[in-house]
Design a protein that fits this description.
The complex is a heterodimer of chains A (285) and B (280). Chain A is mostly helical and 285 residues long. The model of chain B has no long low-confidence stretch (mean pLDDT 85). The chains are: A mainly alpha (285), B mainly alpha (280).
Chain lengths: 285, 280
């Protein structure tokens, strides 16, 4: 049976290690997902239950907090604003980055390498720096607290990454495709539209969802540059969170759940591309 | 195609108008005071302000501690995930959830969990002998910084994990096989093979994180708004307050320039490397 030798054997050691690793894995799992789980749970509890200590784990689900949120017009409006800004930013980005990515992938032109470097280097500078200047400029141009300003800002924040992503996707489409089409009489741009674009459709989808998530969740600039007209969902959420001095956990959790919903849903779709993009980016340096 | 650079032009115009222009303009106005040229006066005033040193210190503390934590955690998780052969897609997509959900939600989640009287963390600590209401995570100057660091680590560790995981999975097998033949222990192979080979990925992850942690605003704002007693007051907030509460745009511009310089110093190694890689 199990003699002393068993406990000294490497088989036992391997089992122990494997068990510890599994436990660690579960702990990591909990660490990563618990806060989200907690928010959603809290949003579905009754108000009393949100305060109970010890916390309630099994309870009747209630949508009362969500109902309250839907009556707050500023909250609904902020969602609409976020949607408009995020969608339009995404449209702009996809258009610009597809063109630029294609150019970087297929052509050679003067300043190609320096411009590519510039595109990445710009990302390194803290956007904070533009705040004092942008405040004055936006007021002067009368676009302060306007969707247009936010769209401009978010587009420029994500363009570097998007161009790089699109370039990588275009690189994967072999150039023979366009060449074959051009032999058949297509112009370059027509070949681009009819032949190449459909092939990078997954890349376009990934880029647009990535941009959408970033624009939807952005807080810092929305906080500073939006007020009555263009306030976005995260800003409104934070206003609610900070106003109530930590009392209305149910409502705040419901708000948070709604705000994080679009990002989570979309990310589920592109998680494959997201990981690949990050991996490619990191290995390339 | 006759003029391919035309395709790239829109993106560049966008960047120049929205980012580069205002950045340069910001540097420009930092030398002024309400349209009047004052040279380095704003910077001199900056160096006289106690708040500046406060925020500088807090920013550095926050940046290095949270990135350190993220590196350790991220590395550990990456090593763990590297072994998993089943359900890779699912684990990976779940692992990046904190990242997708972003600082706003992360800040709120931790704010709620760390609540002194009703937070779930304090509830767990009651089992260790700390009654509810005794540990004030977000109201005591000493603990607040720690709380904010942990929350930020929660949000950003996935970023580090993904980069390191990608690096791990791209590692060549041969050094490991050779080491095994030579009978090397796990720690030895880890120290002498894994870490050196992974250095590029580690550097990328660390420098990116340093740059982003240095300008962090959102998570901290949601959790403590810079308090209590300015213990979590960071540079980005200092700029925000001077700009939007005191309307000192010239002074804020100077703060921005300082942040720019510091960020530049941190990211120079990476930029040099990126430039070299692009050239090749």
């Amino acid at each position: 049976m199990m003699g002393r030798d068993f406990y000294m054997s490497s088989k036992f050691k391997k089992r122990c290690i494997s068990w510890t690793l599994n436990i660690l894995f579960v702990l990591v799992f909990i660490w990563v997902l618990f806060p989200i789980f907690w928010i959603v749970m809290t949003s579905l509890k009754t108000r009393i239950e949100t305060f109970s200590v010890p916390p309630v784990w099994v309870f009747m689900l209630t949508l009362e907090h969500y109902k309250v949120l839907f009556t707050i017009s500023s909250f609904l409006k902020s969602f609409a604003n976020s949607a408009i800004i995020a969608l339009l930013s995404t449209a702009v980005i996809v258009f610009f980055s597809a063109l630029a990515g294609y150019a970087y992938s297929r052509f050679d032109f003067p300043l190609k390498k320096s411009s590519a470097f510039f595109l990445l280097a710009v990302r390194m500078f803290p956007p904070v720096v533009i705040v004092p200047s942008m405040f004055g400029i936006s007021k002067w141009l009368n676009i302060y607290d306007h969707h247009f300003l936010m769209i401009l800002l978010y587009s420029s924040f994500t363009i570097s990454f998007s161009v790089w992503m699109m370039k990588a996707f275009f690189d994967e489409v072999s150039i023979e495709m366009e060449e074959a089409a051009m032999v058949d009489g297509y112009t370059r741009m027509k070949a681009f539209r009819r032949v190449v674009l459909p092939l990078v459709a997954p890349g376009l989808v990934a880029t647009s969802i990535f941009t959408f998530i970033l624009s939807w969740n952005e807080f810092f600039f929305a906080f500073m540059f939006t007020s009555e007209r263009a306030k976005t969902a995260p800003v409104e959420l934070v206003a609610i969170v900070l106003k109530e001095t930590g009392v209305e956990w149910g409502i705040m959790s419901a708000g948070a759940s709604l705000v994080m919903l679009p990002a989570l849903i979309f990310s589920w779709f592109i998680q494959k591309h997201l990981v690949k993009g990050l991996a490619v980016g990191s290995i390339k340096g | 195609m006759k003029r391919p650079w035309l395709l790239v032009l829109p993106s560049f115009i966008l960047l120049v108008i929205v980012l580069l222009g205002p950045e340069l303009h910001g540097v420009y106005i930092s030398f002024f005071r309400d349209k009047e040229f004052v040279g380095l006066r704003n910077y001199q005033n900056l160096l006289k302000e106690a708040d500046f040193y406060f925020t500088l210190w807090n920013s550095f503390l926050f940046t290095f501690l949270s990135v350190g934590l993220e590196l350790v955690l991220g590395f550990g998780i990456a090593l763990l995930l590297d072994r998993k052969t089943r359900g890779k897609r699912i684990t990976r997509s779940l692992a990046i959830v904190p990242f997708i959900v972003t600082p706003v939600i992360g800040g709120f989640a931790w704010k709620m969990m760390l609540d002194t009287n009703y937070g779930i963390l304090n509830y767990f600590l009651t089992f260790f002998g700390f009654p509810m209401g005794t540990i004030e995570w977000l109201s005591s100057p000493n603990l607040a910084m720690l709380a904010v660091i942990v929350a930020d680590a929660w949000v950003n560790t996935p970023f580090v994990t993904l980069i390191l995981l990608a690096g791990l999975q791209a590692l060549p097998q041969s050094p490991y096989e050779a080491a095994k033949v030579d009978g090397a222990s796990y720690w030895f192979t880890f120290k002498r093979i894994t870490i050196p080979l992974l250095m590029p990925a580690i550097l990328v992850a660390v420098i990116f994180r340093l740059v982003f942690a240095f300008r962090e605003f959102t998570t901290i704002w949601v959790m403590t708004q810079g308090g209590p007693l300015n213990s979590t007051y960071v540079l980005a907030m200092y700029l925000y307050k001077n700009m939007f509460l005191f309307f000192k745009d010239n002074y804020s511009a100077a703060i921005g320039v300082i942040m720019l310089i510091l960020t530049f110093l941190i990211s120079v190694p990476l930029m040099v490397k990126m430039y070299a890689e692009i050239k090749s």
